[in-house]
Amino acid sequence: MVVLRGLVWAAVVTLGGLILAAGIDAFWHVNSPWLRLSFTTTSVVAGLATLFYKVHRPLRAPWDDVAVALLVERLVPEWKDRLASAADFAGRVDPVAVAVVGFPNLGASHAGDAGLTRLVDTRAVWRAVAGLAVMLALLAGLVALAPGPASVAFARQWRPFSAPVWPRSVVLALLDADLQPLEQTRHVSAGEPMTVYVANLRGDLPPGLQLLRSDDGRTHRTQLLTPTSLSAGRGGERELAVATLTPKIGKVRLRAVGGDDREMPWTVIDVLPAPTLERFEIELTPPAYSRLPIVKETRGVGHLDALIGSTARLMVHSNVPLSRLTLHRDGAPAVELASTQGGLTFAAELSIDREGRGSYWFELTDEYAAASRSPEYELRGRRDEPPTIDLQSPPVSLTVTPHARLPLRGVATDDLGLAQVQLAYSSGLDTATPPTIESPLPLVTPADGSPIMSATIDQLWSIEKLRLVPGDRLHYWLQVDDGRTPEAQRTRSREQTLQVLDIEEKRREIQAHQAGMARLVERMILRQQQAQQQTSDLSTQFSHAGELRGEDIKSLDNLDLERRRLLGDLTDGRAGLAAQILRVRQELSWNQLSDDAIESRMDRLDLVLRRLVDELLPSLSERLTSLREQLRATAADAAIINALPESH
Predict the structure, then answer these.
(1) What is the pLDDT of residues 377-399, one digit of tens each?
(2) What pLDDT, in 10s, does the model give residues 444-498?
């Protein structure tokens, strides 16, 4: 009975330990085979210890009188401790006698055997058997309720190093922005936000989902993720968790943990410098006609500002090797550039063929397919400004005789260089006939051979060779061409008109002009005399009264204004009397007219003009100034008197 009881209890302990270990593995998924081996070993050792305690020790213990007496007392409780005390005192107890005394109803022939049999307690064996039955029932229930997990759990205990893995309900995966699985090693550009999605390939995401991140292989950071529903196409939705990262240059490791998935391998993100353009070697070649020098420079940006028709050749340098560099320009198709020096240098060529501001930029793709876009660089085309021409003389349209010789003066300029200046004219009546253009006027070329940027035209134009007759009308102008190719730019000056008169008509015109100037001189003399008289009256009034009224001071201001107007009417360079006298003298010279009477009248007009400008008007100015100073002195004296304290 002792051996049977011990074996049953050893089986109970061993089976119970294995069930407990399997339950722990089923709940926590103990993935360490060494830990599972320790669980199994502990269960077996516990069973052997139980066997040792329940079998070996009782069998090795001595069978003495006191032990027998204790067994009898357990069967006959009313004896209490009397039999054991007596056995201990006497040193020996006859088990048969005890049995007879304890069981008087048995026959004498069987009293010894029956008594001895009754001394053996079988309840301990039945308790052990009951415990074993409970363990077996528990095992059967587990197998019946969950045969698969139970089979895996016990297999993982008996075969810790070759047992199957637990079937997981959560299998996490890292996805990129396109919801495609991330490679185990991925290359991205620094500074660009990176979106990572976490998905459960077997259903919904578990609670407590975390994203683990290691930036340098040592420092770990944990980010708790919140599941959300995103559209997965075709009207369906998928539960995902989203994380946005902006990694720095280096290696970043990522993995997700949650639910029963704790073994996702690390995904390595190799963060490389973003592909950028570091340097531009620029060669600007202007159009040949401009004779401008070729400009070469190295810059950190690619802005271009050049004359229309120029060509820009670029050598573009990147910070990392590129697999592709694509040039984009407003209104033009994209161009993939050729690479040199292992993808670090690319050659590009741009034609500046449009006026105004445009832009161009590059798309960069490195060896790991990381893409970026360069800033937009300004591309500004400057137009070749058309030349300018100013016809200065004759200053206005004229009436001339057929034998006139006119001073032809003008100034022409261009930003890049003049090609030619020509005189052109046409009849005012025949508009269908193209204008006549004379041979180019002579221009002075700079000594160093540089382009002619500005030229002054100054020569006599004899219209006698045009064979004009009185009544003809001639329109004329200067025109200038620059050196632009293939088509020069032409600019025309303002158009002037020549009305041809015979000599007598021209003489009468000049005489009529003289008469008008004489009347003008008379009016100007009268205005001067009136101003002198009013000034004298104001001076006399001040001498007698010692002051001027307010309206008199205003009259003084008006007199000074009249003096300045009169001086302007006399000396204005365009319409003044002096300019008219000069123009009449010029017309006499230009038209080769010699008339002593006209010359004499012009001399007299000029004499009167000089006297007005040099004597009379300056005298009027002096008198006005003196009167003003006297008024200011009087006002100052009055202010001083008013400031003195009153005497008492």
Answers:
(1) 999 999 999 999 999 989 889 99
(2) 777 777 889 999 999 999 999 889 999 999 999 999 999 898 899 999 999 999 9
Classify 51 in phi/psi space as left (phi over 0), alpha (psi -120 to 50) or beta. Answer: alpha
User: In DSSP terms, which residues pair with 242 in a beta bridge?
Assistant: 197
Question: Are the beta carbons of 16 and 136 closer than 8 angstroms?
Answer: no
Is the pLDDT at 119 greater than 60, yes or no?
A: no
> What are the Cα distances from residue 628, in Å, to 328, 352, 528, 546, 631?
76, 68, 19, 13, 5
Strands 295-299 and 322-329: unpaired
Cα atoms in the Cβ-side hemisphere of radius 13 Å centred on 300: 0
Largest CA distance in the chain: 200
Task: Output the CA–CA distances (angstroms, integers) from residue 563 to 243, 535, 551, 612, in the order listed.
Answer: 88, 11, 18, 11
Gap between the Cα atoms of 607 and 34, Å rounded: 133
Integer angstrom CA distances of residue 72 from 76, 126, 278: 6, 20, 105
Place of tokens 């089923």: 26
Residue type, 591: N
Residue pointed to by tokens 């989203």: 242
The pLDDT tens digits for 172-213 are: 999 888 888 887 677 777 777 888 999 988 888 888 899 988
Euclidean distance between the first and final Cα of the chain, in Å? 155
pLDDT over 60 at 34, yes or no:
yes
Q: Say whether pLDDT at 103 is over 50.
A: no
CB 25 within 8 A of CB 40: no
| Per-residue pLDDT at 9 exceeds 60 | yes
**394, 428, 474 from 471: Cα distances, Å:** 20, 11, 10
Distance, CA of 411 to CA of 391 (rounded, Å) = 7
Tracing tokens 């294995």 back to the chain, one arrives at 18
83-91 long-range contacts, CB within 8 A, separation 24+: 90/65, 91/65
Q: Would you call the peptide bond into 394 cis, given omega within 30 degrees of 0 as the criterion?
A: yes
Within 8 A by CB and 6+ apart from 413, the residues are 387, 388, 453, 454, 455
Which one-letter DSSP state was computed for residue 245? Answer: E
Secondary structure percentages of the chain, helix, strand, coil, to 5: 40, 30, 30
Listing DSSP states for 331-372 in one string gives TEEEEEPEEETTTTEEEEEEE--SSEEEEEEEEEEETT--EE
Tell me whether strands 405-413 and 388-393 are parallel, antiparallel or unpaired. Answer: antiparallel
**AA letter at 606:** D
**545 within 8 A of 609, measured Cβ to Cβ:** no
pLDDT tens track for 582-593: 899 999 999 988
Q: Measured between alpha carbons, how far is 598 from 428 in angstroms, rounded to an integer? A: 31
Nearest to 617 by CA among 566, 573, 571, 572: 566
Strand, coil or helix: what is 310? coil
Contact 166, 218 (CB under 8 A): no
Integer Cα distance of 241 and 227 in angstroms: 4
Q: Which residues pair with 481 in a beta bridge?
A: 420, 490
Residues 6+ apart with CB under 8 A from 20: 43
